[in-house]
Write a structure and sequence with these properties.
Helix content of chain B: over 70%
Structural class of chain A: mainly alpha
Radius of gyration of chain B: 20 Å
Largest sheet of chain B: 2 strands, antiparallel
Number of strands of chain A: 0
Strand content of chain A: under 5%
Oligomer: heterodimer
Mean pLDDT of chain B: 89
Number of domains of chain A: 1
Distance between the termini of chain B: 26 Å
Largest interface: A-B, 47 and 45 residues
Low-confidence stretches of chain B: none
Order of helices and strands of chain A: HHHHHHHHHHH
Strand order of the largest sheet of chain B: 1-2
Strand content of chain B: under 5%
């Protein structure tokens, strides 16, 4: 029983990270109806920036916030420069551009920082007193995830800018008519997604260690999480993230073994897409012939 | 085919036959891989270029083909040439079966599902219950085939690399001719019709579900045959060589070579085989940065790829000749 509880709690911790990445995916999906295959590599690149800053002697939280800011700017830049020209292109072209971004970020990071695995510090103290079930970093990661979620909720619910972004995603034409600059709202969405991703990257790096391919698995789980929850529902993505995290850990520990963990994500993704494409709480998509 | 096209193909084949006698052994091996990639790219192009179904996980079928050949040769002593049709048949079935759920997925979602397949593939190949066959992380080592006796009796002294090159060339020619006939016929037109407007295609009497799953199967078969050939050429299969970047390499190949074009497969194969060699001299990570930049560049500037650019240049040339 103890072992099960431990796995569930550890699953919640990684689940929080999946939830963040899933949330980043959902944000871009809502705004543009595209799934960003480069989301994971973007987060990985940001985490390397944080690593550089910390190694240069900056205190952890200073590096943390600077990295989040940098990621935001990077996200906005990528949307403006790379994604804009293919906004109305066929799906294949967009997918190809995303994949191109993925490999460019991956190889540039490998180029700059080499492919050797690095350790990444955790900001949380070593002992919090309940170390029996959960490491302090796992508890801290859950805490950080929840804070991010709350802030995002508040931003979208209570600020005029958040309202404008929601409007731009829901109905671009009408939003433009009332004076919202839809293009910039999309760019802001990209920036926010990149910022959330960078937080997820910095939270997951102490667990999986820092290397250019570290986000491959995380991205897959985040896809699964976003789909389970419904790809156009932020709340669903968060729920899906925690669910996938727990499932992955419990199944990996007791049922199928650690070596097939990624297959859980594969089965979930294909299963959800085939059986219930709208997920738990997504809208059912009806298209007019 | 116009007379000029036939002349072009004959010249290309003649060049391909002379090639292994004028370049080094290692280059011959590289050109063998170009032919292997060309078959794989043709397979992916049938699916993505002609039928519009995006696959980011075609490395999976390449892996199945490669493992088929390796297991048959290593465990059952099957001669190398006999593994090719088996690998093709296995992949045809595997592709058809994967194509059935894929029917419900359009565009982006299919890309997502196949991407998941591509990412989780190495883990599946390492699965310890399959280790007795797949050799687990270690993979399987196989021996390179010698040129058969009748070749030496003909007075041709071919070394292993040269023989393998000609063997691959023969398979490639057969596969290309088959693909051309398939794509020009009723089924090929049905594939394109589904890509361009699946509702209209359905209304015209095209069985969407059947054609789409069949296309998936055929595409997987091509890629599987290429995988089997690659296993024989490289003499080694291991899970980590079939990671997501292999699948992405194929995507790079069809985008650069030209979507929905048979000759594009050849240009794409040359690109993915030789550009990394050049780029490697800059940095170990550089090939992928360059692949990425080329991908974006081609999507923006030359969406029809090299094949499309050549077609356009030829058309312009002809127009100039007609009204100078």
């Amino acid at each position: 029983m103890d072992a099960l509880l431990h796995q569930v709690l550890a699953g919640l911790a990684t689940g929080g990270i999946y939830a963040s990445v899933a949330l980043a995916l959902v944000m871009i999906y809502q705004a543009t109806h595209l799934v960003n295959f480069a989301q994971g590599e973007l987060a990985m690149f940001s985490t390397y920036i944080a690593w550089s800053l910390i190694n240069a002697g900056m205190p952890y939280w200073g590096a943390f916030f600077l990295t989040v800011g940098f990621s935001f700017v990077l996200g906005v830049l990528i949307e403006r420069v790379v994604i804009r020209p293919v906004e109305n292109a066929p799906v294949l072209a967009v997918v190809v551009v995303f994949i191109a971004l993925l490999v460019i970020l991956n190889s540039v990071t490998g180029w700059i920082y080499t492919f050797t695995i690095k350790t990444f510090p955790s900001p949380f103290p070593n002992d919090l007193g309940f170390g029996k079930y959960m490491s302090p970093h796992e508890a801290g990661a859950i805490g950080v995830t929840l804070v991010v979620l709350l802030l995002l909720y508040a931003f979208f619910r209570f600020t005029p800018l958040g309202l404008a972004m929601r409007a731009a995603a829901q109905n671009p034409e009408s939003s433009r008519l009332v004076g919202i600059r839809v293009g910039w709202m999309l760019a802001l969405g990209w920036g926010l997604a990149a910022a959330i991703g960078s937080i997820a990257g910095m939270m997951v790096a102490p667990i999986v260690f820092l290397d250019p391919n570290m986000m491959g698995g995380v991205l897959l789980y985040a896809f699964a999480a976003a789909l389970v929850g419904g790809i156009d529902s932020p709340g669903g993505a968060v729920f899906g993230g925690f669910l996938v995290g727990v499932l992955e850990n419990v199944l990996g520990a007791f049922v199928i073994g650690n070596e097939l963990k990624l297959a859980v994500a594969l089965v979930l993704i294909i299963g959800v897409l085939v059986v219930k494409p709208s997920g738990f709480s997504g809208k059912v998509h009806v298209s007019r012939v | 085919m116009s007379r000029r096209d036939i002349l072009g193909v004959v010249a290309l084949l003649a060049g391909a036959c002379v090639l292994p006698f004028v370049v080094s052994e290692y280059r011959t091996f590289q050109f063998t891989l170009v032919l292997v990639y060309a078959i794989a790219l043709l397979g992916l192009n049938i699916l993505t270029g002609y039928n519009g179904q995006i696959s980011l996980g075609h490395g999976a079928f390449y892996a199945i083909g490669a493992y088929c050949a390796a297991i048959l040769m290593d465990k059952y002593g099957v001669p190398y040439w006999a593994t090719i049709p088996v690998a093709g048949a296995v992949c045809l079935v595997a592709g058809f079966l994967f194509g059935l759920p894929a029917l419900r997925l359009e565009g982006l979602y299919l890309a997502l599902a196949t991407f998941a397949l591509g990412v989780s593939l190495p883990q599946l190949l390492k699965y310890h219950h399959l280790e007795a066959w797949t050799g687990g992380v270690q993979g399987i080592t196989i021996t390179k085939p010698d040129a058969p006796a009748f070749i030496t009796e003909l007075g041709l002294a071919l070394d292993q690399d040269q023989w393998l090159y000609f063997f691959t060339l023969a398979v490639a020619v057969v596969m290309f001719v088959l693909a051309r006939n398939l794509l020009r016929g009723r089924i090929g037109r049905a594939m394109v019709a589904i890509r361009d407007n699946h509702i209209a295609a359905e209304a015209m009497g095209v069985d969407n579900a059947m054609v789409k799953s069949l296309t998936f199967g055929i595409s997987a078969m091509y890629t599987g045959v290429a995988g089997a050939l690659s296993a024989i050429a490289i003499q080694f299969v291991a899970p980590d060589s079939f990671n997501i970047f292999l699948s992405i390499t194929f995507l790079v190949g069809i985008v650069i070579g030209g979507l929905a074009s048979i000759s594009g497969a050849l240009y794409g194969a040359l690109f993915i085989q030789f550009i990394p060699n050049v780029a490697d001299e800059i940095s170990k990570a550089a090939p992928w940065a360059i692949f990425g930049l080329f991908l974006i560049g081609f999507v923006y500037v030359m969406p029809a790829g090299v094949a499309g650019a050549i077609r356009m240049a030829m058309a312009r040339l002809q127009r100039k000749r007609q009204n100078p």
